[in-house]
Structure formats: C-alpha cells, structure tokens
C-alpha cells in the first residue's frame, strides 16, 4: 500500500522510489530512462510500470505489470460508490451491515444560499482489516475461547462411514495418543480436597461437614480400598490420583448409587401398590355392605 502523497504524480513517486530504495538489493532501476522499477520477489523479478504507454519497450522483463494511474490504484481506499451501493441495498441485512459507512451530511452556507454537502471519510482496506482484527481480539479477551480439534471419519467425508485406521492415524499424528500416555504415567486426576470428600463420603460411614484437608482425604481413601504410596499424592489444595485408582473409586461410587436408586424405586413402587390396595379394599368392602343391606331389606 502506498501512503498518502498529496500533490504527487506517478513519475514523482517513481523518482522517490529510485532515491530511497536505489541501493536496496531487492530493488533495481531500469537501465534506460523508462517509467518503471523492478522488485525481486521470492518467486522472481517483477517489473512495475507506472505508465502503460511505453509497455512495449520493456518486453524483456520476466513479469511486467503496467498500471494506469499507479498512485490512485494503490491508495488501498474503499470505493465510496461501492459503499453507497451497499448502504442503499433493499436487503435489510446488507444495509444494516454497511450503515456505519453512510456518508455524513453537514450544512454549509455559501453566501445567501444554504446547501447540504456530504463529507466522505477515506477508508482503506488495510484500516478496515486492522479494525476488524482489533475487534476480534477484544472479543476474544472478553471471552474464554475453546478450540475443538475435529477429526475426519473418512477421506471422502461421507456421513455414516467410520474408518478406524483413518481416525487412529489422525490421533497419532496430532499427538493426542502421546498426550494421553504421558497423562497416564503421572497423576492426571486432580481433585480439590472438598470436592473429593463431597464425592466419595457416601462410600464410607462418616459424618457430614468433615474438614477438607489432605489427612482427611487420605483417611477416606484408605477406608475405601488398599492403596500404595505411589498411587496418589497430596498437594497444597488438591489430591492427585492415578487413572486406574480414579476408575476404581468411580466404579465403587456408581455401584453404591445404583443400589440407592434401586432402593428408592422399590420403596416408591411398594408405596404406590399399598395405596392402590387400600383403595381397592375400601371399595370392595363398601360394595359388599351395600349388597348385603339390599338383600336384607
């Protein structure tokens, strides 16, 4: 992008480039007095010509770009007529998106008559991109973004087709399997003291409102199963457990919860059946008494 150059022409810009960048190894001036300059890009040399009138004289260049009104086309400004077209769009969504680019009206008095002129603010593509990037960074700082790694179930991306070899290769190459193995070698389960007691105190006959500290957690853990010193670690505020020990505790907790759920279901079913039996017996006794009275009368 070329900076704002008031009262400048294509040839004055070319002279400035020759003056400031003539000694740069990536910049080269033409041997003949032609309105052009050459940039040595990574893929090769590209010659930019600021005046297309003499394009045929530089036929020996690898790539030649002749641009009419070189400065105007490289100001990187958003065309106001394009913005006006979007602002006046009949689609409400498009008009709302470009409502901030609507030209502002400011009254200006010229002698005895008054007229309203539109004040345009020059917008560049780079400035819009920079503002958009700043808005995105600001939104990300206000939030807690989570990035989800997606896996392709098959190379054709067809629904309902799962290829285990393809998924396993993606997991292996992305380092997920190695991360899981490293986590298993250490202490991947890290529970706060209070969270550990609240979760597993139902497995042992202990009172509520227990002190949340490392000694109490170790006491609860020793009552639940036989543990070795290398199967857990006590931190400052958390208890670190091995994966297989955590799975054992979870299976014991799930078993106790299932028994509790079955007990609740048994009690509720017995209650409903007894209530139905009492209602039915009351109705039968009432029917018998009515029938006996009728026969006696």
From TrEMBL:
Protein name: Unconventional myosin-XV
Region Actin-binding, residue ranges: 133-155
Gene3D superfamilies reported for this sequence: 1.20.5.190, 1.20.58.530, 6.20.240.20, Kinesin motor domain
Superkingdom, natural source: Eukaryota
The entry's keywords: Actin-binding, ATP-binding, Motor protein, Myosin, Nucleotide-binding
A Pfam family annotated for this UniProt entry: Myosin_head
Domain Myosin motor: 1-254
Alphabetical list of PROSITE patterns matching this protein: IQ (PS50096), MYOSIN_MOTOR (PS51456)
SUPFAM superfamilies: P-loop containing nucleoside triphosphate hydrolases (SSF52540)
Family: Belongs to the TRAFAC class myosin-kinesin ATPase superfamily. Myosin family.
């Amino acid at each position: 992008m070329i900076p704002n150059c008031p009262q400048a022409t294509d040839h004055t810009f070319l002279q400035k480039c020759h003056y400031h960048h003539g000694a740069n190894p990536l910049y080269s001036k033409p041997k003949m007095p032609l309105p052009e300059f050459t940039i040595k890009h990574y893929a090769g040399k590209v010659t930019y010509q600021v005046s297309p009138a003499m394009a045929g004289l530089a036929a020996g260049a690898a790539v030649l770009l002749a641009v009419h009104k070189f400065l105007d086309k490289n100001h990187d400004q958003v065309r106001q007529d394009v913005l006006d077209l979007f602002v006046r769009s009949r689609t409400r969504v498009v008009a709302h998106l470009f409502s901030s680019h609507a030209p502002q009206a400011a009254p200006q008095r010229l002698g005895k008559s008054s007229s309203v002129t539109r004040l345009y603010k020059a917008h560049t593509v780079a400035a819009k991109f920079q503002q958009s990037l700043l808005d995105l960074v600001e939104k990300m700082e206000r939030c807690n973004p989570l990035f989800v790694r997606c896996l392709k179930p098959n190379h054709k991306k067809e629904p309902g087709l799962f290829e285990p070899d393809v998924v396993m290769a993606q997991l292996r190459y992305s380092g997920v399997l190695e991360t899981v193995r490293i986590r298993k070698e250490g202490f991947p389960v890290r529970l706060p003291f209070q969270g550990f007691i609240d979760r597993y105190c139902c497995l042992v006959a202990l009172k509520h409102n227990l002190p949340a500290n490392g000694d109490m957690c170790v006491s609860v853990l020793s009552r639940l199963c036989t543990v070795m010193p290398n199967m857990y670690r006590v931190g400052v505020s958390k208890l670190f457990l091995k994966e297989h020990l955590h799975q054992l505790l979870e299976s014991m907790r799930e078993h106790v919860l299932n028994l509790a759920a079955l007990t609740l279901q048994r009690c509720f079913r017995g209650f409903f059946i007894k209530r139905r039996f009492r209602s039915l017996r009351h109705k039968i006794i009432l029917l018998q008494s009515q029938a006996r009275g009728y026969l006696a009368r």
